[in-house]
Amino acid sequence: MRSAIRHIVLLAILAIPANGFAWTVAAHTCAAQPGGGDGTNLVSSGIDTSGATLIVLYSAAYIGSSAVSVSDSKSNTWTGLTNLANSQQSRLWYAYGATVGASHTFTISTADTTLFNGALCVMAVSGNLVGGDPIDAQNVNSNSSALTLTTGSVTPSLNNEIVITGFASAANNTAPAVDSGLTLLDSLTGTGRPLVGLAYITQGIAASINPTWTIDPAANNQANIASFKGPTTRRPMGVMVFP
C-alpha cells in the first residue's frame, strides 16, 4: 500500500453566462395618450406575462400632472424608484413575485385626473431572486436642449443582475438609441407627448455601467436606470489538493 497518495480534485463550478441565460423577457409593450391626452388614465394593451417573476414599468408625464401612480389588472403591489421631475416627470416602477398571466394590462394615473402627455413602457422578465426584494442600485439624470444623455452610473453588487433604463424626451424623432451593449426593447415616438424608450442588459460579471441615450433633434431629456438582483452565481473555485 502506498502512503501519501494525493488526490487532486478540480471543482468546475462555472459561472452563469453573461447574457441570455439568467434572465428571459416574457413580454413587453409601450403605450401613450394620443395627442397629449385629456387628463384621464392611460391603460396599456394586454400582454401575456406568464412565467415572469419581475415586472418593470417606466412612466413619463407632463410636469404639470400631479403625482403619477401605477396599477395593473392583476392587482400587484408596485414600488416606485426616484421620481425625476424637470420639465416632465419620469420614474421606474417594479413589482416582484407578481401575479402574472394572459391579458395583463398596466395603468398610469393621477388622483385628480391631471395626467397629460402620459406614456409608459413595461417589461416582464423571469430570473430574479425569489423571495426577496430584487432592487440593488439606481440613478437618474436629465438635461435640456441636448442630443445625448447619460443615465448616471450604477454599479451592481452581484453577478447576473439585469440593468434596465427608461428614457423620456420631448424630441419628435423616430426612435431613441442607446449604447453600452444595451438592447432597446421598446420605444414610442413623441407626438405631443414624451418620447419614451426602455432598454436593458444582463450582466454575467458585475460592472459599473453608464449608458448614453441619443436622440435627434435636440430636446429636454430624462433617464432613469436601475439594476435588479439575479440568480446566485457560483464561480470556479480552482484546484483543491487532499492528502
Please, could you describe this protein's structure?
- The protein is mainly β and 243 residues long.
- The chain has one domain (12-234).
- It is built from no helices and 17 strands.
- Strands 2, 4, 6, 7, 8 and 10 form a six-stranded antiparallel β-sheet that branches. Strands 11, 12, 13, 14, 15 and 16 form a six-stranded antiparallel β-sheet that branches.
- Strand 14 (183-188) and strand 15 (195-202) form a beta hairpin.
- It is globular.
- The model is unreliable at 1-21 and 233-243 (pLDDT under 50).
Shape: globular
Helix content: under 10%
H/E element sequence = EEEEEEEEEEEEEEEEE
Number of DSSP helical runs? 0
Number of self-contained structural domains: 1
Structural class estimated from helices and strands: mainly beta
The overall strand count is 17
Percent of sequence in beta strands: over 45%
Low-confidence stretches are 1-21, 233-243
Gap between N and C termini, in Å?
15 Å
Largest sheet: 6 strands, antiparallel
Q: What is the mean predicted local confidence, pLDDT?
A: 86
How large, in whole angstroms, is the Cα Rg?
Answer: 21 Å
